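Q: I'm writing up a methods section and want to include an example of the input and output format. Could you take the sequence below and give the corresponding predicted structure tokens, formatted cleanly so I can copy it straight into the document?
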Amino acid sequence: MCGIIGYIGFRDAYPILVKGLHRLEYRGYDSAGIALSNLSGSLSIYKTKGRVSDLEEYCKDKDISGSIGIAHTRWATHGEPSNTNAHPHYSESENIALIHNGIIENYAVLKQQLIRNGYHFRSNTDTEVLVQLIEYIKVLNNTDLFHAVQLALNEIIGAYAIALIEKGGDNRIIVARKSSPLVIGIGDGEYFIASDASPIVEYTKRVIYLEDEELALVSRGFSPKIVTARNVEKTHEIIQLEMNLSQLEKGGYDHFMLKEIFEQPKTLRDCMKGRIDVTGKHIVLSGVMDNRERFLSARRIIILACGTSWHAGLVGKYFFESFCRIPVEVEYSSEFRYRNPVIYGDDIVIAISQSGETADTLAAIELARKSGSFIYGICNVVGSSISRKTDSGSYTHVGPEIGVASTKAFTAQLTVLSMMALYLGHEKRTIDDERYSFLLGELNRIPDKIEKILQSNAAICDLSKIFTYAHNFIYLGRGFNYPIALEGALKLKEISYIHAEGYPAAEMKHGPIALIDMEMPVVAIATDNVMYDKVMSNIQEIKARNGCVIAVVNESGATIREIADYVIEVPSTEDCFEPLLNIVPLQLLSYHIAVNKKRDVDMPRNLAKSVTVE
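A: Here is the clean output for your methods example:
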């Protein structure tokens, strides 16, 4: 959740660290801090509640010299956002500074042991317990900091990505990770440490991804030394990043979220590029094709995901069951991992995560692995934990998604799932050649149709002004569009803080219809598909109770236009691909309502982009 950045080299560290914090602020933004070591051997920590810009203001009159440093932007877990609870944290002697992403589950027991040994605590965080424990072990064993970190990590339970520097130890940074991402950037005579590659890509594209329970000693003039907590030395391949700096800029848009909504035609073309052959008649998904027999003989598919990715999984269920006739279960990763699920060795488990670092999904993968099932990952970040821990998988190839509310990653996940299901359906002969070719052609046309929807941005902006001060929303959909009702509601609540709920339209009469009155806007996905007449009946039930209806329709939706209060038009497509189109106006509606309410669209309160803790 939190963002970590570190630097050691020949440049001034402060500007690199602060720029890196801005790039990482989507991971957490309730406080920020920095620790610097300079040539005089001093170790200084500056930190404050609030955004990175508040930290910059605080540091204006401070000594920010030094070519080694670590910095952190926080998403609070233990202790409310405050100057004291912000990272970095000093050890008792103030000789060690540490930053941390994750949760130390046994911190309370360790804290009491340290208090009994004379240690004092300034903050309410689990992180301060870790840095105090490291110093305690260092002193007790009369050892160096690196060995002390190894010993301390064997005492803790939980997840962590950490970086430490030591007073007078201006030639090294020590880092370690478990269940939380950490990358080392390899420069020319300099090194960069980060939670992900976004803050370091402008300096180097050569990186090492640490694995779980590994530590690294990053020193000036030497290659990183990587060992396990049990002191087994490891070697890692240096990976070349494909990310471009331009992908991390707003490119003239007011917010990253709006930019990412408008990028969807391009990102979906990128997602399909090389996967639908030049004739447009065949799907080439190597991760599926290389494991064709496992997929074709699967008893069922289990999809694991959280949040928006879970909604993508629900649409995926419709894809696989419709095209392949394979039974599918869609599970919240957080629930799956804490019950005793029935998993068979001939099941296929598909794990979906934008970041590839979602803690609950990673834990659910480990549980599924014990059953001997085949695990397939769908994620966006090359080299992420899920891509390394699954048997095979597909990247979505949409580039960095900075806005906390997912948009382009969601539609790319749908695109990958649809290609998987179409390929398998064709191989199983549950889709004939003619239908297969037709659906591939229609999938290829989806980016052009999204471009047409985006031309309605100004009209949707005007519509949003009518509903800026609504207190509640209901979203309705049926069939393939039920998960889109859920996702549309989630987008609105995430960034505008308006309470919104998604329902299958037919379920209105089983309770939610009691909420309908003139003050309750209802977004009804009423595009022209096999469920059209049913949805129209549901809308009439709402209008009979004086409800206000915003309908998403096609050109042919004349009847619904007559009874709905407002309409948003989208192009027609096959029922199965409607989710890829219908979500786009709902993304735009949520965005504009949030802007009208003067919300921080890219960094909504209490949320962070990459959920790396439970």
